[in-house]
Amino acid sequence: MASSPSQSRREEKARRRGEFPSAPEPLAVPVFDSHTHLDITVQEAGVPGPGDPVDALITAAAKVGVDRIVQVGVDVASSRWSAALAARHESVLAAVAIHPNDAPLLSDLDEGLRVIDALAAEPRVRGIGETGLDTFRTGEDGFAAQEESFRAHIAIAKRHGKALIIHDRDAHAEVLRVLDSEGAPDTVVMHCFSGDAGFAAECVRRGFHLSFAGTVTFANAGNLREAAALTPLDQIMVETDAPYLTPVPHRGRPNASYLIPLTVRALAATRGDDLDDLCAAISANGERVFGGWR
C-alpha cells in the first residue's frame, strides 16, 4: 500500500535527522544477522533505545526475531572488541580481520595479521573477515597489499577451521581467481553479495554461501534479486552490514539488526518461498556455517 503524503514527509524528515526507523513486524521463526558492526553503529548512528547502547541494539533485534548476531571486525582494534563482546554475550559470535581497504594503509601489515591469527584461535571467534578485494575504494597502488592480506586471511581461516567472510566490491573475477589459486576454505561466505546471476552461479557451484543485505530491496537491484532467486536454500543467508545499507522503505536512515525482517520478507517474495521456511533455512545455515551460539 502506498504511503500517504504525510507519511512520506515524516519519513523524509526522519531521514534527514538520521533517526532509526520504527521496528518492523516480528518474524515468527527467528533468524540471525550474518554480518553487522555494532561498534560502528553506536559510533556513527547512536542507538534505538535507552540503556547500554550495544545491549539495546541486541535487545531490539531479539524482539523482532533476530536472536543471534555475527559481529564483524574490520581492523585490529575492532576485531579485539568483537572477540571480547562475543566472549561475554551468548547471542553474539565474532569475526576478525583487517578490511581490504585498510591493508594498504598499515605500516606493519604482518603484525596486524599476527594479531588476527591469534584472535582466530578464540572459541567464539567463528569467522575470518571481512577480507577480500575492493577496487572501488583502493587504487592500483594498493592492490598488491590487498591481495597479500587476502591470501593471508585465507590461510588463517584454513589453519583454524573458521568460515572465511569475503568483502568483494567491483572485484568478482579477482576474488575468484585468488580463492581458486589458494584453495578456498571449507566454508566461504560472500558478504553483502553484489554480483549478478552469472557470478552467483559461479559462487554456488563452488559451494559458497551468499549473504544478502538490504540492497536486495532497492528498486535498481534487479541483478541481486535474480542472484537471490537462484541461490539454493541451503546456501542463502541474510545480513545488515549495519549501520549501512538500510532496506527499503527506510533507505538512507541508520541500519541495525532489528531491521532484518524487512530484508527477509523481500527475499521470500523474490524467491517465492514461504517466509517461515526461508527463516528456518537461514537459521540452519547459520548454525552450520558458524556453529552454535549457545
List keywords for this structure.
294 residues; 11 helices; TIM Barrel; alpha/beta; 8-stranded parallel β-sheet
- Supply the CATH class: Alpha Beta
CATH topology description:
TIM Barrel
Shape: globular
Helix-strand pattern: HEHHEHEHEHEHEHEHEHH
Q: Show unreliable segments.
A: 1-17
**Mean pLDDT across all amino acids:** 93
CATH architecture: Alpha-Beta Barrel
- What is the first-to-last residue Cα distance? 40 Å
Strand order of the largest sheet: 1-2-3-4-5-6-7-8
Largest sheet: 8 strands, parallel
Strand-residue proportion: 15-25%
Helix percentage: 40-55%
Count of DSSP strands: 8
- State the secondary-structure class: alpha/beta
Counting DSSP H or I runs of 4 or more residues, the number of helices is: 11
Cα Rg: 18 Å
Number of domains: 1
Oligomer: single chain
CATH superfamily label? Metal-dependent hydrolases
Task: Give a nutshell description of this structure.
The chain is α/β, with parallel strands linked by helices and 294 residues long.
List the helices and strands and how they pair.
Blueprint: H1 5-17, E1 31-36, H2 38-45, H3 53-63, E2 66-72, H4 76-88, E3 92-96, H5 109-120, E4 125-134, H6 143-160, E5 163-169, H7 172-182, E6 188-190, H8 197-205, E7 209-212, H9 222-230, E8 236-238, H10 260-271, H11 275-290
Parallel strand pairs: 1-2, 2-3, 3-4, 4-5, 5-6, 6-7, 7-8
